[in-house]
Design a protein that fits this description.
Elements (H helix, E strand, L loop, with lengths): L1 E2 L6 H11 L6 E3 L10 E4 L10 E4 L5 E7 L4 H16 L4 E7 L8 H12 L4 H10 L4 H4 L1 H8 L4 H7 L3 H17 L3 E2 L1 E4 L2 E4 L4 H12 L6
Parallel strand pairs: 2-7, 5-6
Antiparallel strand pairs: 1-2, 3-9, 4-6, 5-8, 8-9
């Protein structure tokens, strides 16, 4: 599937106008394949990527993954299970910094990102993100408040107000801009060390890339 970035609301349009004026880009979901050589990979600068996003796992973990994802992308959902397995295998050793990259072809991806950001204000980003992926095929019928309540968000009135807050849109726009700066061509996309890898990596490939980063440090 191809499409352009989500532009939902005047605040987002204003926040990413400087980036989108450079040119419109086509986006694709990258379908998983088994061989590591099948995944696009290149070296990138990463210093600016460590700001923003939400950390899953221990923030002080020696190995960090930066993930750009779309809540409505089925391959992002598949990768999320792989990442959960990786964090469980190496507690305290690996962390994931989740950043939003909604695609315009997915009408619910941006609202899902907004909902997750608002859940984060009450300390429930990860639980709501997991629920969104689990119910990816029925998001339109469930409703964001119902999902938030199930994720543990207690103050649903504040949650509803938050979803209209321009600051939330600016946060998502900042993630989109960071992804554009990387020159992303699809979701999901991971930055591991200084390597950008695009696609729904299987667990063995993810492990190999992390071992590569850890080799010189005696980690993992």
């Amino acid at each position: 599937m191809r499409g352009r970035h989500v532009a939902d609301g005047a605040a987002v349009v204003a926040a990413i106008a400087a980036v989108t004026m450079v040119g419109r880009m086509l986006w694709a979901e990258i379908r998983p394949t088994t061989p590591a050589s099948s995944f696009a990979r290149r070296t990138v600068g990463t210093d600016y990527l460590m700001e923003g996003g939400h950390v899953l796992g221990e923030a002080t973990a020696p190995l960090a993954i930066i993930e750009f994802s779309d809540f409505q992308c089925p391959f992002c959902r598949r990768l999320q299970k792989t990442i959960a397995d990786e964090l469980a295998r190496h507690p305290g050793q690996v962390s994931v910094r989740y950043r939003h990259y909604p695609l315009i072809g997915h009408s619910l991806a941006f609202p899902a990102a907004v909902a997750a950001e608002c859940a984060a204000r009450q300390g429930h980003f990860e639980s709501l993100a997991n629920l969104i992926f689990q119910h990816q095929d029925s998001l339109a019928s469930i409703g964001w408040t119902a999902l938030a309540r199930r994720a543990g968000v207690a103050d649903t009135d504040s949650f509803a107000l938050c979803r209209k807050d321009p600051e939330i849109q600016r946060r998502i726009a900042a993630d989109v801009a960071a992804g554009q700066r990387l020159g992303l061509t699809g979701t999901p996309a991971l930055v591991i060390g200084d390597q950008l890898v695009v696609g729904a990596l299987p667990l063995d490939t993810l492990e190999a890339l992390l071992r590569e980063q850890a080799r010189d440090h005696g980690r993992m």
